[in-house]
Model the fold of this input.
Amino acid sequence: MAITAHIVFAVRSLIMAGTQHLSGRDARRRVIVINTLALTTCFLILCIGLYFSALTQSIYILAGVLLESMAFIGVIALNSQQQYYLANAATLIIHCVFGLYFGAMLGDAMPIEALAAFLLTFLTATSFLVYRKGYSRLATIAATLAIVAIFFLNTQYEFIHPIFIPADVEGTIQTGSWVGICILMTFIAVFTIRQNDLSRQEIEELNEQLKKANMAKTRFIRENNHELRTPLNAIAIAAQAIVDMRQRQPELAELDEEIEVINTSCQMAAEIINEKLDYVKIEAGQLEEVSLHSFKLTDCLQDCTVINRSIAKGKSISILLEMQPDVPSFIVSDKILLKKILNNLLYNAVKFRRTCADPAGSKSGAGCAEVCGHQQRHYSRRPGRQAISTLSI
Done:
């Protein structure tokens, strides 16, 4: 019982070699596939290959068996040293090289069709299990086809002469070859099916997580949409009360600008909430749809100027609006998106305003201008004066 436990522990340690350094489940799985494949092939080679060596009494078969077994142990060692790519490549190369070698040595005793089918299906499936990049898979398929072509050519021209095999053991070797090939192909088929099942399970789990995230997003937007309306409406009502008070008390004229900013900001925030934070539109995938209608361009520009003027005032910057004579009074566009663009431009113009500097880095009285499409933002800095940003349309 203790011996069995030790054997199980040793086999598990070999299969898990190199996985302790990996955190991703998919990467660990690929290493386990290579280690299991190397260990299984090594076991089959030792069992079947040593039996073939005893039947044929050939040193070439014995040498090939020992070398291939040691090579697959080396694959596990590479994974344990975190040389994962080399281990993957070595696995495929070992199968190709020794498949060609034993096929050539055994000659007619090795069923050529079975070996060709094994190389094509086994190595191709293995490459798709362990490689994620397309060029690595293509390289493996190309190498497999080349090995199969060489094998067929060798059966015709005998570049490598097969060993002598007595007629009474040829059938046994063919049967053993079929058994080994079927075991390896069954192994890779099971791993492929298991990989597909795991991938499908991961996709289902990811879809479930996305559904939960989408439901949480919808609930968040719906609740905050309602919660934003209440204080916004209160601000709008208070602003309107201040406007009414201003009309009755002319001495409050110095608050006109602030009152206008509050009113305009409330109206714009209400438009954004109504049009762009509508969870029904978000669920229908209509969030980025453009809503075209006719509106007065001057009002739109003035609203954006008023809002950003109060922000610029805190940095001692004035924003002036200049309308060119050929600009139409009414346009057809998405008013909210246009305001969004203009607000971003003006906000960034204030936030990232430039001051002119001479080569030494000191400020001078010269002005500087930046042109962006059809909009010009002019900045000037003079000693003792505020910066002026002019939006020209």
Observations:
- The first helix runs from residue 2 to 15.
- DSSP finds eleven helices and six strands in the chain.
- The CA atoms of residues 264 and 303 lie 6 Å apart.
